[in-house]
Each structure stands twice: as C-alpha cells, then as structure tokens.
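User: Thanks for the earlier help. One more: MIP18 family-like domain-containing protein. Can you show the sequence and predicted structure together?

Assistant: Of course, both are below.
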Amino acid sequence: MEQEIDTQELGEKIVKVLKTIYDPEIPVDIYELGLIYDVMVSTDYDVKILMTLTTPNCPVAESLPREVEEKVKSLDEVEDCEVEITFDPPWSQDLMSEGAKLELGLL
C-alpha cells in the first residue's frame, strides 16, 4: 500500500523553509512580508508556489523565485517545485504579518 501524503505537514515544512528566505532590502522573511500568496502540494509531491515581489522592478526578480524553488526542492519529500510570479493583487504593506510590521517599525 502506497504511503499517504500528509499535505498539511509538508505544507508546514515548506513554510518553515520559506521563512529562511529574506528580501535583501528588507530584514524580514518573504513569508512574513506577505510575498507568498499560496502554496499548493499535489499528491505527487509536486509543489506550486504563487508569490509576488514588492515591485515589478524588484532587483531580485530573477534570483528570488529561483532561490525559493531551490530551497523548497531541497526538502526530501518534494519531487518538484514551480514558482509562479503574479502582481494581482499587487503587494502592499497590508499583506505583511503583524510581526513583520512591528520589526519594521510600522506599528
């Protein structure tokens, strides 16, 4: 019998990995910054991440999605990872967690 995938548990591991990736211009991880819109895990262990950037002209527009892909793929349970960038809705400070706002002195 094939082992049942616990997508919730794997999702939590992926979030932990995402919290180790920082926007180089802001001292807050990309998850708390609100750049991650969705993490989808299939039963084939494929992961799709829908994310945005702080601006369309972000200097790390090339490297940040690649870093996200590589770090998520480094998890043993993950077969493949695809990162899709979207600007709908556009990023705003409202997407940041309370902790991120506190860290940046916005509260």
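User: Great, one quick takeaway?

Assistant: DSSP finds three helices and three strands in the chain.
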